[in-house]
Amino acid sequence: MMQHRASSPPVWARRLAAPLFLAALGLAMFMLARTQPAWLDERIGPGLFARWLSLSVVAMSLIWAIVDFRSEDGLEPAQSRAARPPLSMGLGLLAGVGLFALALPPLGLVIACALTAGVVGWAAGDRSPVGVGLAAATGGACALAVGLGLLPPGTLLWPQGL
Amino acid sequence: MTPWIGELATILTWENLGLCFTGALLGTITGVLPGIGPAATLALLLPLTYTLDPAGALIMLAAIYYGAQYGSSTTAILLNLPGETSGIVTALDGHRLALAGRAGPAIAIAALASLFAGLATALFIALAAGPIADLSLLISPAGLAGLIALGLFAAAVIAPGRPLPAITLILFGACLGLVGTDSGGGWPRFTLGLTELRDGIGFMPLVMGLFAIAELIRALETGSRPDRIAPVRWPWPTWNDLRVSWAPTLRGSAIGALLGVVPGVSTVMSALAARGAERAFPPADAPLGQGSMAGVAAPEAANNASAQSALVPLLTLGIPGNPVIAVLAGALMIQGIAPGPSFISNNPDLFGALIASLVVGNIILVILNLPLAGLWASLLRIPFRRLVPLIVVFAVIGVYSVRSSIFDVWLMLGFGVFGWILVRLKLEPTPIVLGFILGPAFEEYLRRTLLFSRGDMSVFLTDPVSLTCLAIIAAGSGLLILRARSAKPGR
Fold first, then answer.
1. Kind and range of the H or E run holding B181
2. Separation in Å, CA B395 to CA B28, B198, B214
3. What's the CA gap between B147 and A39, in Å, rounded?
């Protein structure tokens, strides 16, 4: 019984996910564009082209959704849970970038890059402490080299006060 | 043509030769790595050019660009896994040759065909770009807006995959390009009240998020390396290899140089067209697809010629014809160089430096690619997971260093998430960059047109260039609809 339960969304939902996602983004842009004037006297204002474009995104997405919904082409079979790539790789890589943004102001470029490289190395599949440590050390060394050689002199390389 | 010959002397300084060599070397190293295409390569290495003067930056960026193109063919031949899409065509015969123990000669033929195509196309650009730019100065703002619309339409239609998603993503990219202060009245637009967005979305956070971060995640999730990499022995072709390759190289160069000028035509399409043309000329060594040198020479020549001649619409009209050129355009804008109709007349020195860089850089690349083919092969043996942390570190430093802005790093993270969602939805994020670059340019020409016509839209139907572009777009759309209807079963 459990095996019959769908482990992936129905076909129509998979067909419509992409166009509806972009239609929602286009609609959000249109709502923002509406807050601005389309015309200023006889000159075009900031809202005109923005409205045209965002409405075009919505319109094209809806046409795309209709075409896909009516399409008789088969979708690729849904991947089983086991075959789906794990989310941890992507999430880990994104966490590494977020960590850089959080760590840079207090810790400086070198340590922030070392932390980022360590987290990303782990996310990329290097799970041994030596591998993660090596990735962190290499990342820090690269940041030091780039920071000293290419970035402006005022760049914060080390924690403030060090 | 004379100015760029004069500039050849300018580029032959030790400093510029060093920049050209460094760009070609770094472009090749990064281009060799599967999963990192030329667009991401350019974006990743962009921070290296910040401290250079415009001519030096242009020389280095151009060298990185065609270095990445060269590098991808080595990967295609050795791994059957191209560094960028056009390598797929080279891999069809190149990898067969590698499996037969002829990886070295195949890499050499690819390099020599690319060299010939690169030099011939540099000459073509030097001769053709000036007159085209002079003509484009005569085009009205309405005509330029029409040309941009036509370029975007062509890019969406000809791109691999389906046109509807590509058009939608281009339009969405154009929306992103409008974020910031409106150039007409100084109004903040799409900024969500954030002062950091008043200058617009930075080009680097967008490109790094969509290409570096999202593409790395895709490569990690889907990528697998073969256990065995074909050994590279003496990387020099036999006389017979050269004999059977020269004619396909000539044909590939001509096809690539001509197709590359058309906005929207990618390098992979030129390579495919060149390989298709070879079917009319049965190769003397082996049938196409069975390890024929013609199957390496023709697509490689076409690929390189197309990559270079794609600079023509950028330099003469300001229209980047494909996403890689869009990244190059963004890189030039960061350097304060504005590609467009007046680029060549305002910057003859920069144009000359670019042409000279194409000539010198292609020669440097052959010197790098022939003796070092074995070294590139060994680079492919480094596990990808070991390279990913370094690539991310360079990406975050690159994004942060443009404006010393933590906000840009968060923005890059946001675009990384967005790019990842697109990848999961089986969409290509590249059209967004085209829209991002061309959206604001289109609005500017639209604004000027409506200012002159006092808001009368019919000017787009009375201007001959604009009318022609609109007619082509309408006819193309009609053909697409007809093709889609006739493709349905039972009709």
1. strand B180-181
2. 18, 23, 12
3. 25
Helix or strand holding residue B188 (H, E): strand B188-189
| Of B169, B393, B489, Cβ closest to residue A113 | B393
Transcribe B232-296 into DSSP letters: -------HHHHHHHHHHHHHHHHHHHHHHHSTT--HHHHHHHHHHHHTTS--SSS-TTSS-SHHH
DSSP assignment of B405-454 equals -HHHHHHHHHHHHHHHHHHHTT--SHHHHHHHHHHHHHHHHHHHHHHHTT
**How far lies A130's CA from each of A80, A94, A121, A135, A145, in Å?**
33, 22, 11, 9, 22
ipTM of this predicted structure: 0.89
Question: Which residue among B174, B385, B488 places its CB closest to the CB of A125?
Answer: B385
Strand runs labelled E in chain A:
39-40, 43-44
CA distance B301 to B223: 28
Predicted model pTM: 0.78
Selecting from B168, B171, B392 the residue whose C-beta is nearest the C-beta of A96 gives: B392
Q: How does DSSP classify residue B192? A: T
β-sheet bridge partners, residue A44 = A39
Interface of A with B in 51-70 (CB under 8 A): 53-54, 56-57, 60-61, 63-64, 67
Asked if the Cβ–Cβ distance from A142 to B394 is below 8 Å, we say yes
pLDDT in tens, B305-362: 988 888 888 888 888 877 778 778 887 887 778 888 788 888 888 888 888 888 888 8
Residue A108 contacts B, CB cutoff 8 Å: no
| Helical pair A46-70 and B163-177, crossing angle rounded to 10 deg | 160
Angle at B427 between CA A26 and CA A55, to 5 degrees: 15
What is the per-residue pLDDT across B250-283, written as a single tens digit (0 to 9) for each?
Answer: 999 999 998 888 766 667 778 888 888 887 887 7
Helix (H) or strand (E) holding B180: strand B180-181
* Token pair in block for residue B120: 């011939």
Q: DSSP 3-state assignment of B189? A: strand
- What residues in A contact B222, CB-CB < 8 Å? 85
